[in-house]
Amino acid sequence: MASLAAFRSEFEPGPELEVLPSQCGAQALLAALVREGVDTVFGIPGGANLPIYQHLPDFPIRHILVRHEQGAAHMADGYARASGRVGVCLATSGPGALNLITGLATAHFDSVPVVAITGQVAAPTIGTDAFQESDVIGSCLSVTKHSYQVQHADDLEEIVAEAFHVARTGRPGAVLIDIPKDVQQALVGLKRPLGRHRVHRAPTEPPDRQIAAAAAHLGAARRPVILAGRGVAIAGAEEVLRRLAETVDAPVGTTLLGTGVFPSPHPLGLGLVGFMGTGYCNLAVSECDCLVMVGMRADDRVTCRLDGFAPRAEHIIHINIDPAELGKTVDADCQIVGDAREVLERLCVAVRPQARPEWRRQVDGWRERHPLRHPRNGRLQPQEVLSAYYSRRRRGDITVADVGLNQMWAAMSWTGGEPGIFLNSGGQGTMGFALPAAVGAQAANPDRRVFAVCGEGGLVMTLQELATAVEAQLPVKVLILDNRQLGMVRQFQDDFYGGVRSQVDHLVTPDFSMLARAFGCFGAVVERHDEVGPALDAAIAHPGPAVVDFRIDPEAGIFPIVPLGGALSEFVECPYP
Amino acid sequence: MTLAPPQASGARLISVRVEDRPGVLQRVTNCLSRRGHRLLSCAVGEGSRQGELCLWLRVDTGRQPPAQAALQLAKLIDVVEVADLTEEAPSEWAVGLFDFPDPRAKGLERELERFGAQVVERSAERLLAALSGPPQLLEAARKAFTSMRLRDWVCSRPIALATTGGRHEPITQEEG
Fold it and tell me: Is the Cβ–Cβ distance between A245 and A268 less than 8 Å?
């Protein structure tokens, strides 16, 4: 019988509760957050969560006051991605809660552990269409891993413990706790003897035969390729991934979310795979006879036309902690459910060292024939800005890309040997992600330098969070690749929609340097090549948040690109020499 | 409308054990609709374990791989166990109520007896009969009863247990 219980519920002893008789629900919540190790939360107070804010100053939790709830969710997301801890955001009921949804979806789709805590109208008024009432639980069903509406203040500690456990275990995700105002104000009961919460059984270790089969497939392959996704970063499997690749001499490509999990440059590195992947990576996947996909979902941006994805592969090995991802799009013949690091460690033991000089020569030949290129027309190119930026990166610096051309340029130009420090919204592709996520990443890592790479279109969607950065003294550096248009949409219209440029030009774009200064940031505009380096240096040297507006070639596009409906191997290269 | 389980392409019969918590049905149905699965039928009942509900879902997975519905349901936090019974030759059982306006209709008693229906209410203007059994039996009875001037009828969706391999593997919950 096909019995599926990989994530079944169990109970395990929780920490002993320390609820004092005089505590109210809001205090119990805050105490529980402290117990979970929460040191920072992002949010906005409002009518339905004021009891929480009333008691917040009594707890050792830093609150960062955002300017819009979407920003709070993205900040919690950035905090979590950059720290490995659970990010927490707060919002009031109604519009406050609903404003979180885009941010929760962004986190959830990218498997980021975030706990959102929303105030709700008092329990007796739920369902009466009370002021600022919204069904946030129902609204968030599809964008959260789980959600709770707290019915009794006594349940708060248990629910918080379970919510954090759910958010960070298995495949991480977003969790919502909705707390009616009267529950926040109600007194909790006396200390109970022992708390408990449900835990979710981790997937069982894959059987030896699956590991052996995967090792045999790799051993017999003449043209193996490994593709790696964010699951590698979540599992901390970067080192073992490199060890496996070098042991079996297999080139490694990454998904957008996997950017950084394999060092670049590296002789085996293929860069990005997929819709806007490198030509040599896409060719290698198209020609491989054995494909290993680890910690990735294989969505349409990776596979492009499905029947053109790894068409010559005799074996596809798919490793993912989420069993539902196996066989969802790509029908892998060797499906392994498990943590990326554990599986790769076992694979490393099971495989034998091999050299594949012929395959390497072929891949290197593709690398030479299909290099990443960009126009050299005298106008400022985004790749030139990014090259100058990356050359100034220090170990530990965090780069947060927004969404659109800027994201793809930043990912394709990425160089670095240190994993886990290139963040972006891959699953949802949420424009406006970078600035607030960078603020969150900076809050989690006050000693690191954090850079947000944005387009001007995405930046203005969450621009108000510059005020948050200044107020919270979080010195993020915002690099705008400003083409005065919705660049990726423009390229799609040019390439795939008859060349009709419709509603993509930003005829009115603010002077971002003046705007930055209005918020209290450093601001600069760069239009010439010789200004790039000095502007970057000045922004980096500035002790607070900084914004540099790089006026790039408005016609700059992303290449290579696979035409819509095309196969990976049908990529189109940069038409300019 | 028919009583027999719709045999849509890709239809799966899925048994789900869930914790009896507020909103759990919403989570289950949302999980299916969000993925483009069509919920053809749903029966809900109590199982042998306290605090749990049993759901029997017939789902058309449409263009999605057939296993996806069960795999996605298994990820829900309140779901204790999911079993895809489609290939298990499950024993399915449903209940129907049949409302006849003329208790003296010719042949009615004989038809009720033939299908094993039980009379639960009888008056001069009404005969209410109940029948339980496999969905196919109820469908056959409905067709036969329709010719007896059936005023109204209602039928539950089937509950099911696998006939091969016995009951689902019990889940042990360890309490702290």
Answer: yes
Whether residue A519 is found in the same domain as residue A555: yes
Residue A456 has pLDDT above 60, yes or no: yes
The two tokens of residue A254 are 């990454």
- CA dist A94 and A129 (Å) reads 10
DSSP 3-state of A299: coil
Q: Which domains does chain B have, with CATH numbers?
A: 11-84 (3.30.70.260), 91-159 (3.30.70.1150)
Residue A514 lies in domain: 382-563
ipTM entry: 0.88
Task: Give bridge partners of residue B129 from the DSSP assignment.
Answer: B98, B119
How confident is the model at residue A201, as a pLDDT? 62
Domain boundary among A369, A394, A416: A369
Whole-angstrom distance, CA of residue A198 vs CA of residue A38: 20
* Residue A129: CATH number of its domain: 3.40.50.970
Which helix (H) or strand (E) segment is B121 a member of?
Answer: strand B118-122
Same domain, A407 and A478: yes
Nearest one of A299, A302, A219 to A253, comparing CA atoms: A302
pLDDT digits (tens, 9 = 90+) for B93-116: 999 999 999 999 999 999 999 999
The total number of structural domains that make up chain A: 3
Nearest CB to A7 within list B30, B74, B164:
B74
At residue A205, the pLDDT reads 81
Chain B CB contacts of A142 below 8 Å: 30, 34
For B167, name the nearest residue in chain A, comparing CA atoms only.
A1
Kindly provide the b/e burial profile for residues B60-72, where b requires at least 16 CB atoms within 10 angstroms of the residue's own CB: bbeebebbbbbbb
Q: Which two tokens stand for residue A498?
A: 């008859």
Looking at the structure, tell me whether residues A90 and A166 fall in a common domain. yes
Residue A440 is assigned to a structural domain of this protein: yes
Q: What is the pLDDT of residue A190?
A: 61
What is the C-alpha separation between A416 and A254, in angstroms, rounded?
14
Q: What are phi and psi of A274, to 5 degrees?
A: 110, -160
Overall size of chain B counted in residues: 176
- Contact of B27 with chain A, judged by CB distance below 8 Å, is answered with yes
HSE, CB side, 13 Å, CA atoms: give it for residue B28: 31
Work out the burial of residue A469: count CB atoms within 10 Å of its CB; fewer than 13 is exposed, 13-18 middle, 19 or more buried: buried
Among A3, A13, A324, select the one facing B72 at the smallest CB separation. A324
| Alpha-helical runs (H) found in A419-528 | 434-444, 456-459, 465-471, 487-496, 512-519
State the pLDDT confidence band at B168, using cuts at 50, 70 and 90.
very low
- Token digits of residue A520: 């209290």
Cβ burial, residue A378 (10 Å; 0-12/13-18/19+):
exposed
CB contact under 8 A, A149 and B77: no
User: What's the whole-number mean pLDDT along residues A283-290?
Assistant: 98
Query: Is A58 a domain residue?
Result: yes
Same domain, A358 and A396: no
Report pLDDT digits (tens) over A140-186.
999 999 999 999 999 999 999 999 999 999 999 999 999 999 999 99
**Chain A interface test: which of B25, B71, B174 (most A C-beta within 10 Å):** B71
Nearest one of B65, B69, B13 to B42, comparing CA atoms:
B13
Residues of B in contact with A4 (CB under 8 A): 70-71, 73-74, 81-84
Average pLDDT over residues A371-396: 94
